[in-house]
Design brief:
The protein is α+β, with helices and mostly antiparallel strands and 587 residues long.
Length: 587
């Protein structure tokens, strides 16, 4: 008793003498695969202030609030994304060790950025460069800022101004006479080219799954992207009954219809489908109809995953079967260690890149059309099918495209035929197809680029499983109702169990999320979701088994610099049905 009392006294003395570390400046951290920047400073009155950048997502300047610093303990919130960080500060204030909470906890350590010592004499490429990248009917302004240190080493960062992705760090920046090159690891991109004799032009190629010309000219002042506004939410008086949803959406979309994403000058048209407790509603805004057909892009991945589950339930494949076994004999050598399985592909855990490096479209307006199975196998033969020991969630169009092709090989039929045999036939989704009939062509909504120019429709071959499907809101609601109530599926012996198989959560995904077979699950809302985008269309689908509702949004315009409008609208509708504060659809 006497000893314990003295320990308590000593602890109190120690606490009284402890000093709160001084923190401030720019810090860098990694949350799973996301690069984060934390900017801290002491404001008026000595209170901490700060903002957070998620550079990979183009979310810059997210305000941090509710700072609490007591001795070495630090915590703060980021309200716009519903996140909280808490942890400890090192004695010198250079390291912040802790956890990020956004539905679930993940380790997140921030380290203060080291100061940069600029070269006394700039190199010939040091400065600010600006160019325009054209791909799939979209124009993106690219800004590169280059600097060198006293040792002559080159450094740079890349800004995709129209996407709001600023300060993406470069690697391997090299200047050799007139040749300059650098990589941008976070987007798996590389630029290589030459400096003109005038010293004011860099003429070269940007490579990111495909090679695109990118010429940049020297600038005197750096452009600044429009600051990312923190998400705003509309208040709610509780869940909106489905019968009242149209009136609520008319009000919530009024600004978008007047001068936003759905304004007459944009040609933007959207179809919204919702089902709740078995009751369905479909609403349209703009120049589209209830039965209009849209490209659903990457929502196709959930169909590919369901084909996998169907074939597993039918004992035609196994989840842990190596993908190598479903490719033509001799395509790729068996690796020495672990290798990529069908499950790895369906859960985005294969370690494969987002796109193959031999993806070189003949027509950038229809980029996937000429990527054939032989070209896919050529890449796989070179890359191999080893699974990296540290493989984790890495979103890959290549991976789901490979899965679709592999399953088609095993079934002995083309992907469109396999889709019909396993899913769209049994569920009677007659307007959910890869190839449109003449009658369906008449109902195919015209797609538009972010600049509101008519966009070319996309066609797929070897990578069809990643994004080839077209559909209507009515068909998508039927598909989502099957997800909500697999027990009510009557037309296929194995389809109900296959759907349930897709919902089993198998791995971590993005912060606050897990993944089943292709479907992403958000712990905060209890909803499974996926989105999609092609050259002229964007889409969003979500279903919530606990609350028994589903929503689909089909939009005839691809995502632009403000992010996917279809995603915001889909989340907004889901929030309205749930009674949560809904993301505001206007400024």
């Amino acid at each position: 008793m006497f000893f314990s009392r003295w320990l308590l006294v000593l602890a109190c003395v120690g606490a009284a003498l402890a000093q709160t570390p001084k923190i401030g400046g720019d810090y860098s951290g990694m949350l799973s695969t996301l690069h984060l920047k934390l900017h801290l400073k002491t404001g008026t009155g000595g209170a901490l202030e700060g903002t957070l950048d998620s550079t990979d997502q183009g979310a810059m300047g997210l305000p941090c609030t509710k700072f609490h610093l007591a001795e070495a303990a630090l915590s703060f919130e980021v309200p716009s994304v519903g996140g909280t960080w808490h942890g400890t500060v090192s004695g010198d204030g250079a390291t912040l060790s802790g956890s990020w909470s956004q539905g679930e906890e993940m380790p997140l350590v921030f380290r203060r950025d080291e100061p940069f010592t600029t070269a006394d004499k700039p190199s010939r490429v040091d400065g600010i460069w600006l160019g325009t990248l054209e791909a799939g009917g979209t124009e993106l302004r690219i800004q590169v800022q280059v600097k060198s240190d006293r040792a002559g080493k080159e450094y740079c960062s890349l800004d995709s101004l129209d996407q709001g992705a600023m300060g993406l760090p470069c690697d391997k920046a090299q200047l050799d006479r007139d040749h300059f090159s650098f990589e941008v690891p976070v987007v798996k991109g590389r630029w290589s080219g030459t400096l003109a004799a005038s010293g004011n032009e860099l003429d070269g190629t940007w490579s990111q799954g495909q090679d695109l010309p990118l010429r940049m000219t020297r600038q005197t002042v750096a452009l600044v992207a429009k600051a990312t506004e923190p998400l705003k939410y509309d208040s709610t008086a509780g869940p909106v009954p489905l019968a009242d949803l149209k009136a609520v959406l008319d009000r919530d979309l009024a600004a978008a219809l007047k001068d936003g994403a759905l304004a007459p000058a944009t040609n933007g048209g959207v179809v919204i489908g919702a089902v709740q407790h078995g009751v369905r509603r479909i609403f349209t805004y703009g120049p589209v109809k209830e039965d209009s057909i849209f490209e659903i892009g990457s929502i196709s991945k959930t169909f590919t995953a369901l084909i996998l589950a169907q074939m597993v339930a039918q004992h035609k494949v196994k989840l842990d079967e190596q993908v190598r076994e479903l490719l033509p004999p001799g395509t790729v050598a068996k690796p020495a260690g672990a290798e990529i399985t069908l499950l790895d592909l369906a859960t985005q855990q294969s370690g494969l890149p987002r796109m193959p490096d031999n993806f070189h479209p003949a027509d950038l307006q229809d980029p996937y059309a000429d990527y054939r199975p032989a070209t896919l196998y050529e890449f796989i033969a070179k890359h191999g099918v080893s699974k990296p020991p540290d493989a984790r969630f890495n979103y890959s169009n290549l991976g789901l495209g490979l899965l679709g092709q592999a399953l088609a090989n095993r079934a002995g039929m083309a992907y469109p035929e396999l889709l019909k045999a396993e899913i769209t036939g049994p569920l009677e989704l007659n307007d959910t197809v890869v190839n449109l009939s003449p009658e369906q062509e008449k109902r195919f909504a015209t797609g538009y680029s972010p600049q509101h120019r008519v966009a070319h429709s996309w066609h797929f071959d070897a990578l069809a499983g990643a994004g080839a499907i077209r559909s209507t809101a009515s068909d998508m609601l039927t598909y989502l109702e099957a997800q909500l109530h697999p027990d009510k599926v009557r037309h296929a012996e194995t389809l109900a169990s296959a759907i349930e198989m897709c919902h089993e959560l198998r791995a971590d995904a993005m912060p606050g999320m897990r993944i089943g077979l292709a479907w992403l699950f958000e712990a905060r809302t209890g909803g499974f979701w996926h989105n999609g985008g092609t050259g002229g269309y964007s889409s969003y689908a979500v279903f919530n088994p606990k609350e028994d509702y589903a929503v689909v949004v089909l939009f005839n315009t691809t995502a632009g610099g403000d992010g996917p409008f279809a995603d915001r609208l889909g989340r907004h509708v889901a929030d309205r049905l749930s009674g949560r504060p809904a993301i505001t659809l206007h400024d």
